[in-house]
Amino acid sequence: MDTGLLYLSKEDVIAAGVNMAEIIDLLEIAFKEKGKHQTEMPPKPGIHPGGGDNFIHAMPAYIPAMKAAGIKWVSGFPDNLKLGLPYITGLLILNDAETGLPGAVMDCVWLTGMRTGAATALSARYLARPDSSVVGVLGCGVQGRTNLEALVELFPIQKIKAFDVDADAARRYADDMHKRFSVSVEVVAEPKAAVTESDIIVTAGPIMKKPHATIQAGWMAEGAFASLVDFDSYWHPAAMQATAKFCTDDTPQMRHYQTLGYFKNIPAIHADLGELALGEKPGRETPEERTMTANLGLAIDDMAVAPLIVNTAKEKGIGTWLDL
Ligand SMILES: NC(=O)c1ccc[n+]([C@@H]2O[C@H](COP(=O)([O-])OP(=O)(O)OC[C@H]3O[C@@H](n4cnc5c(N)ncnc54)[C@H](O)[C@@H]3O)[C@@H](O)[C@H]2O)c1
């Protein structure tokens, strides 16, 4: 039995080589367990240094069926971009589920990006039209990239309409995504052009307690699906009300966020992702309905994937062993 602590830097985590298809599959297992109430995941406590939209959240979870237990300590500081620093940073501790011993500490940026994209794709598996081929991306950063990477795994994606307030970021995104996924990427000058006529819409700008609510009712096409990675920041309440099914990844966590002042004007919740994965609640029922999920990002997403990263790193001799 290992008694040391394996430290994995961001480069080590990437070098372990876990891929998006594996991450989507692991999330599906985790959400089925959650649907069966076989996971432990208290709503995330947080602190808010500097106030505003800054946060540092503690995200513990235990998934018995996956022998996965641990915690992520993750920050989001929107003004970091002006300092040339990443918006999202943090660490994850993975514990041995049988002894409680901490077994690994890893940078969590790559995992956060990948599992959030995977959660969008898993939601889309139940909520989007299977023939969805056009994706509108608003916010061309880390999430804009990983959400597309995940969607490409499950859907016949051909065309992307990309909007970012930073035109250079949108152009870099277009080049990168075209090269990586052989999709055509059109940079659009207005948010509306990324929403209308898209089969799948991903909004991934900064999370704001007071939404800027740019996307209006009537923009989203019939039959489209939207993933609100940046919560309801981008969406006018009337645009959300125009959907037939408004979902989330975890209803209790959504209610918790509401007590903190987020999601003040959302529609009734149709289902959470555990209920969709188990088939307890229906996903899309007609090609015409508009569907939407506001996935909050859950500790079970991280804990479902972290053991594979650690085990693969151990097999490949990646990382730095430390004494406890
Ligand atoms: N729900 C979840 O599970 C989850 C998980 C991780 C991150 N997030 C959220 O996803 C969002 C994106 O995170 P990221 O790591 O990709 O950040 P990032 O800094 O890599 O990218 C954000 C991009 O959005 C652009 N942007 C800013 N305002 C915009 C606007 N109004 N319209 C369009 N683009 C705009 C920026 O120029 C930047 O390119 C953040 O709000 C973050 O909190 C959510």
Explained architecture:
With 324 residues, the protein is an alpha/beta fold. It is built from 10 helices and 15 strands. The strands form 2 sheets. It has an 8-stranded parallel sheet. Strand 5 and strand 6 (102-107) form a beta hairpin. Helix 2 (20-35) crosses helix 10 (299-316), helix 3 (109-127) packs across helix 4 and helix 3 (109-127) crosses helix 10 (299-316). The longest helix is centred in the middle third of the chain and has 19 residues, at 109-127. The protein binds nicotinamide-adenine-dinucleotide. Residues 76, 81, 87-88, 112, 116, 138-143, 163-166, 169, 204-207, 229-230, 295-297 line the site of nicotinamide-adenine-dinucleotide (NAD).
Condensed summary:
The chain is an alpha/beta fold. The chain has helices at 10-16, 20-35, 109-127, 142-154, 167-181, 191-195, 237-241, 251-259, 273-278, 299-316, and strands at residues 5-8, 46-47, 55-63, 68-76, 88-95, 102-107, 134-138, 159-163, 184-187, 200-203, 225-228, 245-248, 271-272, 291-294, 320-322.
Quote the distance from N terminus to C terminus: 14 Å
Order of helices and strands: EHHEEEEEHEHEHEHEEHEHEHEHE
The main sheet orders its strands as: 9-8-7-10-11-14-12-13
Cα shape: globular
Percent of residues in helices comes to: 25-40%
* Separate helix tally: 10
Q: How many strands, what sense, and barrel or not for the largest sheet? A: 8 strands, parallel
Proportion of residues in extended strands: 15-25%
Number of strands: 15
Structural class: alpha/beta
- Rg over CA atoms, rounded to whole Å, is 19 Å
Q: If you average the pLDDT, what whole number results?
A: 96
**Structure ligands:** nicotinamide-adenine-dinucleotide
**Unreliable segments (pLDDT under 50, ≥5 consecutive)?**
none
